[in-house]
Amino acid sequence: MLRYSLSRLSQAVLVIAIMSFMLFAVIGLMPGDPLENMFEGNPSLTPELMAQMRELYGVDQPITTRYWNWLTAALQGDLGYSSLYFRPVLDVLVPAMFQTAKLLVLTLMVSVPLAMILGTLASRKPNGMIDTLVGLFSFAAISLPNFWVSLLLIILFSVKLGILPASGSPMSDDAGFWIHVRHLVLPVGVLAMFHVGPLIRYVRAAMIETLSADFVRTARAKGLNERTVIVRHALRNALIPMVTVLALSFGHLFSGALVIETIFGMLGMGKLIYDAISNVDFNLALVGLLMATIVVLVANLLADLAYAVLDPRITL
Amino acid sequence: MTDAIDIRYERAPLPPAQSIWRLRYEKFRSHRVATYSLLCLALLILVCLSAWPLGQMLDIDPNKTNLLARFRPPSAQHWLGTDDLGRDVLLRLLYGGQVSIAVGVLATGLMSIVGIAIGVSAGFLGGRVDSVLMRITDVLIALPLIPLLIVLGSIDLTKLGLSASAANSPLFIFLRIVIIIALVDWTTMARIARAGTIQMRSRDYVRAATVSGAGRIYNVFIHVLPNISTPLIVAATLTVGRVILLESTLSFLGFGIVPPTPTWGNMLTNAQQLIISAPHLAIYPGILIFVTVMAVNFVGDGVRYAFDPRAENEGGSQ
Questions:
Q1: Testing the interface with A: which of B33, B146, B258 to mutate, by most A Cβ within 10 A?
Q2: Domain boundaries, chain A
Q3: Dihedral class, residue B75 (left if φ above 0, else alpha if ψ from -120 to 50, else beta)
Q4: What does pLDDT average to over chain B?
Q5: Is the backbone of residue B126 left (phi > 0), alpha (psi -120 to 50) or beta?
Q6: Would you say the pTM of this structure is higher than 0.95?
Q7: Which CATH class is domain A96-315?
């Protein structure tokens, strides 16, 4: 177990190192360079001065050198300044991470139980009426563009009915608990809908398989009531592989969070990445994307380890 | 007791020969939702393709802005009215449909080629090649696609040596979105191709061919690819819908296909600002995305049902 964890961990570190270089290279291909904004605001800069400044900041160096400089600084804790917020990148990103974490945790708290309930209901009679309805719902959830659903819900609940705010976070930080809740209803709802579609299909398939297993027949044969059979025997076993499915869906969920945060104006990681790329904020885009990558990879690593803990048949 | 019992064996008539495609077609037809979805898609494509003659007939240019004719209600010339810049909504929807569907199909084709090449190489060569390629696949499958696509979509192509006019031409913007989606979303195809190839690799006829001197390339094209095509076709069909959603999301965010070229995604970009003044403009493109993606997914489900022999016991609805 320890050996496996360590080898996986070192692999993850290697992957993150490679990703950081690739992101560095790709972000370097965004329009302009980090000094361009400075030049635009200052017409008195002569081309010679500009070239000197490029040399001073090392922008004219080959990419390997620039990456090495960035990496050595980053490992010493200097991730640079955000040209969009005029603050150190970390000061901007850390609060955003909490914001996104809040959104994602709330979404999971809705989507996972919903998928378990609907998937289990559907699995009890494959091709029955409930199954068809649940299947239709999950198909629709997979096929709906989440940004459009957000727009429709804003039109309906915020513009027409006026009962829910159109933004995801309150204007002032000291707003009360219920105000926060009201602001989060729409974003969490849309994101959960976006996340739940594939999960339902997964739970259903796993439950159909588990319900035909010998131990479920035994449980029924010894006279347990249906509820206990399903909840305690079948569902618990069907859900073990779900840890992996959930971890794999984490990247997908983060993609959704970017769209939702952008539409509902929530200052989370997704919106920061979006703003950084829109406004060519090199440092913020790079560190934001890298952090998103690290979070997703670590979630996957933890899921693999959790899988081994939950299922004693697996030895690592 | 005169008659001996006359036993005559009659050969049971053989069922008429049926090709596998015929069987699949019949099975697909029996999946009612998929059949209707296919019809609906065909109709949609036809309608979208009629954009040019319709524009000629009504004498409208879909990209021509007219600030004096903004937010017009439906009329004889503008059947669905005009948008915030005075452009005809219907024609833009139809042209946008052409673009969205074309991106869906082309990107799926390209990613299939990439994914199959990677998956078959990994499966057939095995060893270190396999483990490296599959590690890359595992990582890519876990990463959030939209942020990656946004970065790739914001790349300045002139930095890669393209001339500024070429980089900003609609054709290149279109090709770019096709290529970047294919570049990040080939993982499912690769996994399926790899799993199939590993099964095929150890089959007797592949070994026999190898012993008789067949090269790897020959084996891959003659023995492996035709035999793993079924799950690949199914996966590709289901991918088209996802690609259309990805493209519309990217275009909505402003990193996909940019105006004046209309797509269903970028027609919604301004919708958020217009929610109060013109909410109806937010309705049409979204409905079309939803209907198209849903229809494509149902067709994919039908194809899966028709092509996958194991789907028989399970029934068609899932």
A1: B146
A2: 2-89, 96-315
A3: beta
A4: 83
A5: left
A6: no
A7: mainly alpha
